[in-house]
Predict the 3D structure of the following.
Amino acid sequence: MNPIDAPGTREDAWRAWPGLAQLQPGHLGSPASVVVLAAHPDDEVLGAGGILCMLASVGIRIRLVAVTDGEASHRGRADPGELITRRCAERAAALRELGASAAEVVRLRLPDSRLDRSETELTTLLCQLAAGFDVCLAPWENDVHADHEAVGRAAARACPRLFFYPLWMWHWARPGDPRVPWAQAIRVSLPAVAAERKRAAIGCFASQLENRADELGPVLAPDFVAHFARDFELLFTTERR
């Protein structure tokens, strides 16, 4: 069974693990510009929405590279064109909630759920789109989601200063999991206002939070979303310590 489809680790188990509180505190430094990569609409908000809020609040230039439009999230149970329109509108609403509506959004429109077939093209595009930016944020290259991993690998080749944000890791991993590079993790504390705005931004993605047709549950179940309602975000640094 795909680990993403298996029952996952509940948020209360993560919160009870002392290791989370003991992670090294960190930040992005003092970048003038940040490029953020998202395999699908909502990835950037779940994984780094609080950081985006903080960056926007001090006027840092943000470019959001939307690799796909997330048209495959409903498994043939919604019109892809209508779903794209809806998901893009949800992202715009989420950026407004974060105070980041001035972020430049670049849609690549690569095929959802098939990014491994477009990885060479994606790497070439990212080399151009990340050029001149101080920092890049990307989905973790070992997130056990094929699209996230493809974006992460492309980012590792294209972006000189890179931080990864995990998403599905919180579902399939367990506290202290040896498959997770905890030594490379930094804990980015969120001010109360950034954490609150992030929670509101997550709520903008109704298409992913509501039940789908044919008695399918939501794409993002409540137990999964709970991992992202914290007062911190975790990043994996690719820099040597």
